[in-house]
Structure formats: C-alpha cells, structure tokens
Amino acid sequence: MSGPSGSVAWSLAGPWLGVPCALTTEAVIVHDLPMARIETPWGPWEAAPLGEVVALMRGLAAPWWVAGGYAIELAVGHAYREHGDVDIALLRRDQLAVRRLLDGWDVHAAVVPQTLRPWALGEVLPEQAHDIWVREHPDGPWRFQLMLDEADEEDWVYRRDPRIRRPLAGLTVEQDGFRRVVPEVQLLYKSRGLRPKDEADFEAVLPLLSKGQRRWLDEALETEHTTHPWRERLAPDAPDAPHMPDDVRYFGGGAS
User: What integer pLDDT is reported at residue 243 of this predicted model?
Assistant: First the structure.
C-alpha cells in the first residue's frame, strides 16, 4: 500500500487482534502468506487477514470490493508473492455508510498529503481525501485500508484522470461470495509506480487477460501516460496475446 496520499509504500502483516465489533465466521478463500510487523511514521502496521476484513465488510449494505494486490491474486487463483496490505474500495458517495459500520474503530483519513487525521462519525470527507487507514484503537497497529473511488451516476471515474471511466456494472466481479475489482482496472492504478510488486502482478495476470481487457488497459495507459512500458506487452500482436472477440471501448471517443 502507499502511505497517506502517495507517500512511501509500507508492508503490513500479522494476526487480527481485539476486533471491537462482531465478525461472521463464514469462510472466505484467500491466499495469505506470512508477513512481518512494519513500522511507519504514522504507527505500526499489522494487517488483518483478508478473510476477516471481508467478514467485517459484509455488514456494509453499499457496494464494496477487494482491491490492491489481493484482487490480482484472486484473479490469478494462487499465491505468488507476499502482500503488504489489505485494500478495500468503495464509492465516495457511500462513505458515511462505511464510517457508521466502523463506529468504535479508530479511523483516520489522509486529507493533507503526508498526514493522517481522525475521521469523525458523520463527517463528509473533502474531495481530495481518498485514502483511509483503520485500526481498533489509537494505541494499536493499523489493520486495513479503505480507498474511496469516484463515480458519475452509473459510471466509475478514474480519480487520476477523469477521461478514463467505465460502467460500474463492469468494474468488479464476484468471487468466493464477495466482489473484487477487475484486474485491468487494478493494473491501471499500479501503472504509475512500477514497484517490483506491481511488475510481479502484471506478469502474473497478463496471460489471463482477454483481448478486450488488454485493449481497455492499453487505451487507459495511453490516455494517462501516453507511453508506458506495459503497452508493448498489451499489443494485439504481442506473442502471448489472446485471440478473442472485441469488447466495448469505454472511453476515449465512446463505445466502438
């Protein structure tokens, strides 16, 4: 994950301790690998297991989905690297609902870059705040991260470049009884930093991307970055490009 609003990336780890609200016992299939406790300028991280965060989030009536590296791993279907965090995403318009769900937790938002401040129950966060850290109490380690995504009616809007969008109906897929973001969208978020783990995620999921998914990501990379090292691997004539029917073009001139 990143530090508040794009600072240094931190790894997370460890067991789930002292949950201040009831969690269900419904099984969730995840691929957890051991990780170490990590110190950050905003306090230590000991990430909750993905299954426990999913169990907690089942209490939210609004749409939410697993994001980050776990979303890629779930698409791949097996573990291939350690995970530093657990990322859960939802729409900004549902922020008050998730804050009510987390009543009793210590919840902080990155409103100003490089800083965290408490997110009060009932407070509507300013538009620049999208990164939220969650822990049981102020003296405990951080457990998971929430990300607020943008939407325009029934379209998801990429917050870094609003020219890039797609129907909300095609943003996530259901797996193991919960939803995860589709890999091409998660790779777009990962395309800016190109950390070793982002490259590993790209390599792991690339063979599974359809022709339409590859084209969507290539168009998004062209829109945001113009040139990008992944674009050559996404080209229709790339050695491992699949031979599948075309899909809808979601931006950059409308459907085609």
Answer: 58
- Asked if 15 and 88 touch (Cβ cutoff 8 Å), the reply is no
Distance CA 47, CA 37 (A): 8
Residue 6: CB atoms within 10 A of its CB come to: 13
3-state secondary structure of 7: strand
Which amino acid belongs to residue 14? Answer: G
CATH fold, domain 2-183, is: Beta Polymerase; domain 2 (3.30.460)
User: CA-CA distance, 95 to 46, in Å (whole number)?
Assistant: 24
The answer to whether the CB of 186 falls within 8 A of the CB of 68 is yes
pLDDT tens for each residue of 7-64: 333 322 222 223 333 333 233 444 555 555 889 999 999 999 999 999 999 999 999 9
Instruction: Measure the CA–CA gap between 186 and 158, rounded to whole angstroms.
Output: 11
Residue boundaries of the structural domains of the chain? 2-183
For residues 113 and 129, give the distance between their C-alpha atoms in angstroms, rounded to a whole number.
9
One-letter amino acid identity for 22? Answer: A
184/247 Cα distance (integer angstroms): 13
